[in-house]
Amino acid sequence: MEDIKQQRLRYNLPVLVCLALVVLLLFLPTGYEDAVIYKGADRCAARVLAVNNERVVDTGLIRSGEQTCTVELLGGRFRGRTTEGFNLLNGSLEQDKIFQVGDRAQVVVSYEGDRILSTNMIDHYRLDKEAVLAVCFAAFLVLFAGRTGVRAILSFVLTVLILWKVLVPLYLNGWNPIWTGLFITLLLTVLIIALVYGFDRRCAAATSGAAIGLLVTALLGVVCTGQFQIHGAVMAYSESLLYSGYQDLNLTKIFMASIFIGSSGAVMDLAVDICSAVNEVVQKKPGIGWREATRSGLNVGRAAMGTMTTTLLLAYSGGYIALLMVFMAQGTPIYNILNYKYVAAEIIDTVVGSFGLVSVAPFTALTSGFLLTRGRGAQPKPEEIQQSLPS
């Protein structure tokens, strides 16, 4: 009976720890809440009542000039007021937007006292649709996976908060990107895997294997970035940081850190897959030796690596379909394509991340085979502990 209580505690303790961290992070200030660009301004949604396109100049596919809109403010301190909003067009299909009557827009209202000075049309308002999408996803996940789905949602929220409230501010404050990124990624690895297994031997086995894979990825990322002579400015929007008063940031080290941060999810996934497979073998055959259990984990790892490396390739290349089309449309030789800096950066992301996956498989198989066949033997499955809990 005492053993079952300890198992319940080990399985549920990560949930309590993660909930406490989520609450703490929700109230933790980033230090950048009062960015000067938004001082003296009110942000809210607005409904477009009328549009004036007389100052919009069409040149082929490009639109420039200024669109003016009559809008009704739907929130903020001027809720219910009708005012004129300005939508500046820069001739960029990527950034520009055109509003129609009935659209909902996100606006920034500059004011002085009770007087509206100007209203800038920032973009179409999408927060309500994003909220609906998030709620539907959470409901579907809980409906399909039950309590495990709730844990998955908790890990998702925790990851978002740690990245936004901890990692990004520390980077902006000049902390070493590689060591900071490694610490944050390893912390997330421990917490997320613990939400799957609880604080038990499976968690230790999977975390150990994933940590080794992340360290291999980090080391190779640092070496390859230097050898390929890649500057961190290859990251989208990174130069904007330098022009915003953060010229002391080391963009190259931030790029190095982004390599193992980007592959950490796949590393954790593979580590949990192998550890779960070894645990299943040990459950079915309690007297199995650690060598045989390790071989089983290696066999699973070999099969999983065949698709995992392709997963990374598709994940990284999916956002560059338009670029690949440009290369082909212009007849760019493959020799030139592979030598471009931004293409080489994606090659580093994919290949180095795959190295981490290849390394995590044998090490997770080894740690799982050794830890899960020692001492108390096989560990109870999460569903078995759930069934033992009072309804």
UniProtKB/TrEMBL annotation:
Entry keyword Transmembrane helix: yes
Protein name (Swiss-Prot/TrEMBL): YibE/F family protein
Organism of provenance: Ligaoa zhengdingensis
Segments crossing the lipid bilayer: 12-32, 131-146, 153-172, 178-199, 211-234, 254-282, 303-327, 347-372
Superkingdom in the source lineage: Bacteria
Coiled coil: none
Xref: InterPro entries: YibE_F (IPR012507)
Keywords attached to this entry: Membrane, Transmembrane, Transmembrane helix
